[in-house]
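Check this:
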Amino acid sequence: AAAAPPPPAARKGWVRGLLKFGVFAAFAGAIGGAGYATHAYSLSEVDKKTLEFRKEMTTPIPVAEDASEFEKFRARAYETAMKVPVAAIELYLEIRARIEDHVVGFTEPASDKLLPDLHPDDQNIFTLVVDLTDTLVCNDWQRERGWKTFKRPGVEAFLQHMATMYEVVVYSDQVQMVSCF
């Protein structure tokens, strides 16, 4: 005897599962492609490689005047559907440009020289760089008063003594540091 076909509800669930898998696979592929493009190509290379595709996908499709309404609809629907990958590429390029600009602010020095040139008489003097936070000063927090900054014992004498032998540079990696000197 022939096997009975599965009930329509079972077919519907199978199709829905297949559609979910397809959407997940497309999303995972897009993320993987963006990750590879970010790793393998610079922003300008990605822009150049996708420029032709973006122009082609945004160019209107010529439709003959005597074409049927279905043909006109199909051409317009294709044009509209192709705007999605173009918009996704442009969004990727914009986000990547913003991220790269932000990263440059942290990876590139603010100026070509971090310290000014020494006076010609002081050319043989070494530079001593000292961290302000937890080396020269100590931060303490208490519930009653909040944060308070204290100089470590002997800091002033240490800096005065080091200044006789070195060019002393004090730095801090804290964004907002209140000095107590």
